[in-house]
Amino acid sequence: MTTWVENPEGGRERGPRGVLRAWLEVLVRPRRFFRNGVAPGDQAPGLVFAVAVAVAYTTGLFALVPSRIPTLAGGRALSALVGLAAVALLLAPAVLHLTAAMQTVLLVLLVRDRGGISETVQVVAYAAAPCVVAGIPSPELRVVCAGYGTALLVVGLSERHGVSVARAAVAGAIPATFLFGYVFGGLAALQTVARGLGLV
Question: Where are its TM segments located (predicted)?
Answer without folding.
Answer: 44-65, 77-100, 168-190
